[in-house]
């Protein structure tokens, strides 16, 4: 379990589900500028920043090529990382295919599975959230295909102009990929990530379970000392999490 210390006056920040590039680069540009403005606003007092996936609506790393665009976001992340603020990235279902670019170019570690962190004396279980819990069976089958090395090798042989365009089309139009089958709260007994968190809590205590993926800002008590948090998104809500070393809260940027 990785430990992070939060000095007095500093905070740890969490954000997820920007889906930059959707539905088009041009239409997502205002959202990208707003996200970069948020990064500018928090960088001075950030002890760490966690990005919980789907920063891009599609991302695939060829050996010598990455998708065009997102210059403002990548440049700002590089600036913050270079300043000494640690940034942690968890891949989502739209950016499963990260393979070293963030680590080499931005010095940002990338995680493909949920991880536990101890921040001050508080324990966090952190991940994007796709494919977890008892449901989401259609996507789980799809994910097995997406993460298959042979399938990735075959896709890499497509010219990037064709491969990226094809993937963007399916990313926007296929609900199994987009994760937008349910855009309203289903109730605790039907929320897969709530059920997953409760099951993990029986195995080991954790103060906060932090996820994205659902696109809904949610705060649900799992026990007297444990909570499930969904961060919402940067499409409809512009919500993010902040932890001051003692307390966690969901906030909205640009109210």
Protein model, in words:
It is built from 8 helices and 12 strands. The chain is of the alpha/beta class. It has a single domain (11-252), classed as 4-Layer Sandwich (Purple Acid Phosphatase, chain A, domain 2), CATH 3.60.21.10. A 6-stranded mixed β-sheet has the order 1-6-7-8-10-9, covered by helices on one side. Strands 5-4-3-2-11-12 form a 6-stranded mixed β-sheet, covered by helices on one side. The radius of gyration is 18 Å and the shape is globular.
Task: Summarize the helices and strands and which ones pair or pack.
Elements: E1 2-4, E2 11-15, H1 25-42, E3 46-51, H2 71-82, E4 87-90, H3 101-106, E5 110-111, E6 115-119, E7 122-126, H4 137-146, H5 149-156, H6 160-173, H7 175-178, H8 192-203, E8 208-211, E9 217-223, E10 226-231, E11 239-243, E12 248-252
Parallel strand pairs: 1-6, 2-3, 3-4, 4-5, 7-8, 8-10
Antiparallel strand pairs: 2-11, 6-7, 9-10, 11-12
- CATH class wording: Alpha Beta
Tell me the fraction of residues in β-strands, as a range: 15-25%
Order of helices and strands: EEHEHEHEEEHHHHHEEEEE
CATH topology call: Purple Acid Phosphatase, chain A, domain 2
